[in-house]
Amino acid sequence: MCGIAGYHGLPADPALLERMNDCQQHRGPDGEGIVTSGPCGLAHRRLSIIDIAHGQQPMDTADGRYAIAYNGEVYNYLDLRGELEALGRTFTTDSDTEVVLQAFAQWGADAFDRFNGMFGLAIWDRHEQRLTLARDHFGIKPLYVAMVPNPSGEGEALLFSSEIKPILASGLYEKRVNDRSVYRYLRFRAHADGTATFFEGIERLAPGEMLEADANGI
């Protein structure tokens, strides 16, 4: 279990990333990292499982174009690595994180259909200035999103994280109860069967869902 968090649509804010990341320390006691680039920021808390020494995140591709914050495990990563090496890609770690990152660099969003495993991830494309969020096909790994007012007063910004707590701790989200979700839970014990949460404006990505954010919106 690892934890990811971040934003899109804000100026560089390392303090915000640290604040969000600290809320998920229990998800990743073995390491932490943040990166800011243009309107995007990524944060990661690591639980070391595969390639303990070299799988630190956020992780960049060798050319610096892509950066990833990733929570999960792709079980067929060795097969995918062999396929990518045959296409001329080289690797500097033995982690599945680098395979996921290189697969996206090679195939774009089509890479997600090749993954046999569980994941919640964020990938930032520095060239296209585009953030991609994605959740595994069965929704095993969580990923929450919220649109919040931009402190500049112009438009909105996107926050995301593996848990709701980092969004609450961001200082940018005004806490509001989702009355419908609370009612459905109290009346029918219906919970986590859709994208809505108990907080108005905070949603979970659906299983198998991908979200892209750039200067044109979401």
Strand % is: 25-35%
> What is the radius of gyration computed over CA atoms, rounded to a whole number of angstroms?
17 Å
Determine the mean pLDDT: 95
User: For this entry, what is the oligomeric state of its chains?
Assistant: single chain
Helix content: 10-25%
Q: What is the number of E strands?
A: 11
Q: What is the spatial order of strands in the main beta sheet? A: 2-3-1-9-8-10
The CA-CA distance between the termini, in Å, is 28 Å
**Shape descriptor:** globular
How many strands, what sense, and barrel or not for the largest sheet?
6 strands, antiparallel
What does this structure look like?
By secondary structure, this protein is of the alpha+beta class. Helices cover 21% and strands 30% of the residues. It is built from 5 helices and 11 strands; from the N terminus they run E-H-E-E-E-E-H-H-E-E-E-E-H-H-E-E. The chain has helices at residues 14-22, 77-86, 96-107, 165-169, 179-188, and strands at residues 3-8, 31-37, 40-46, 59-60, 66-74, 117-125, 130-135, 144-149, 156-161, 202-204, 210-213. A hairpin with a 2-residue loop joins strand 2 and strand 3 (40-46). It is globular. The model has no long low-confidence stretch (mean pLDDT 95).
Give a short synopsis of this structure:
The protein is of the alpha+beta class. It contains 5 helices and 11 strands, in the order βαββββααββββααββ. It is globular and about 55 Å long.
Main features:
single chain, 218 residues, alpha+beta, 6-stranded antiparallel beta sheet, 5-stranded antiparallel beta sheet, 11 strands, 30% strand
